[in-house]
Amino acid sequence: METTRKGYYGWLFAMPWLLGIAIFYLYPLLSSFYYSFTKFNGFDVTGFVGFANYVELVKDELFWISVRNTFYYALLAVPTGLILGVFLAIMLNVKTRLQGIYRVIYFIPTLVPIVACGVIWQWLLNAQFGVVNYLLYEVGLPQPGWFSSEIWSMPSLVLIAQWCVGSGIIVFLAGLQDIPGDYYEAATIDGGGHVRKFWHITLPLMSPVILYHVIMALIGALQQFILPFIVTGGTGSPANSLLFYNMLLYKKAFAFFEMGHANAMAWLMFVAVMVLTVVLNWSSKRWVHYMGD
C-alpha cells in the first residue's frame, strides 16, 4: 500500500512536466505532420491533399535553390569551423602565463547575440562604405563585393559564422585535456615530433569529440536562418544566393500563408537531418577511436 502511494506521488510530481511535453512537443509535432498533408493557411484547413504539398515543393525552383544554398553553406562552414576550432584549441591548450585571458578573449564573441553580430558584420562588410573594404583600399588590395556579390555572398556568411567559433573551442579544449599526458611522453621518448603526435595521438583520441562537433555543426548549418535573414533583410539577395531552406520555409508560412507547404518542408528537413546523422554515426565506426578500445 505504501509503495503504491509513493508511486502515485511520483506521477503527481511528474505530471506538470509530462503535460508540458504533451502540449508543447507532442501535439505540435503530430499536428505539423497532419498539416503537411492538407491545404492550410494558418487559420483554416480547406482540404486534405495527400502528398500534393510535397510534389509541389519538388517542382518549385526556389525550393531547390534553397536546398543548394543550404548544403553549399554547410559544406563550407562545417569543415572551416572544425579546422579553425581544433587549431585554436591546440594553441589555447599550450601552458602560458596568460592562457586564461586568451581563452576568455576567444570565447567573448560567442556571448554577442547573433542578431547583433549579423548587423555589425553587415556594416563592416558593406561593399561601398564598409570598414573592411576601406582598409583593403588603403593597402592597395582589391575590395570584394561581399554581400552585394553572388560569388562572395556565401563566403562572407561563412566568415561571419566563424565569429562564434569559441563554443567549438570549448568542446575541443575539453577533449584535449582528457588525453593522458603519458601518451605524449612515450611518443617523445620514441622520437616523435609535434606533427606525428598530432596525427597519431591527438586526432585519434579527439575523434569522438570531433564526431559530436561535426554532427551538431551540420545540424546547425542546415537550420541556419538568423544570419542570412539579417544580412539580406529576409530577401535572400543577391539573386537568391543567400536564400536558405529555413528562410523559404518562413516565407511560405508567414508571408504566403502556405502552412501546408511549410510543414512539408519542415518534415523533409527532419528526414534529411536524421539520414545524415545516421550516416555519420555509421561511418564513425571506421574513424572514431575511443580510449581503451
Account of the 3D structure:
- With 293 residues, this protein is mainly alpha-helical.
- It has a single domain, classed as MetI-like fold.
- It is 71% helix and 2% strand.
- The chain is built from 13 helices and two strands; from the N terminus they run H-E-E-H-H-H-H-H-H-H-H-H-H-H-H.
- A hairpin with a 4-residue loop joins strand 1 and strand 2.
Strand content: under 5%
Q: Element order, helices and strands?
A: HEEHHHHHHHHHHHH
Q: Give the strand tally.
A: 2
Structural class: mainly alpha
What portion of residues is helical? over 70%
CATH topology: MetI-like fold
Supply database-style keywords.
globular, MetI-like fold, mainly alpha
Short description:
With 293 residues, the protein is an all-alpha fold. It contains 13 helices and 2 strands.
Per-chain topology:
Layout: H1 2-35, E1 38-40, E2 45-48, H2 52-59, H3 61-92, H4 99-107, H5 114-124, H6 131-138, H7 153-161, H8 166-177, H9 181-189, H10 194-222, H11 226-232, H12 245-254, H13 259-287
Antiparallel strand pairs: 1-2
Helix pairs in contact: 2-13, 3-7, 3-8, 3-10, 3-12, 5-11, 8-10, 10-13, 12-13
